[in-house]
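Write out the 3D structure for:
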Amino acid sequence: MSTQQMTGREADAELDQALGDPFEMLTAGEVATWLRVTKDWVYTQTRAGHIPHVSLGRYVRYRRSAVAEWVAQIERSTAGRRW
């Protein structure tokens, strides 16, 4: 079934399945693998306050849905730009 033929609930369920648990907390290494960047890049973006994260003492975690929304915002803001 194409995405255009799906109901809103079906499309949401398919997206959830593709992304995994939206409330899952990820490590910097897992975010790096997911975004196909280096772990150092993730930490740099974290220190700069760009990528959404949660500080848990000396640990830093990233909620999957927050990172996905952050990427979507970047995508929307750059959609009309020319290279």
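The longest strand covers residues 59-63.
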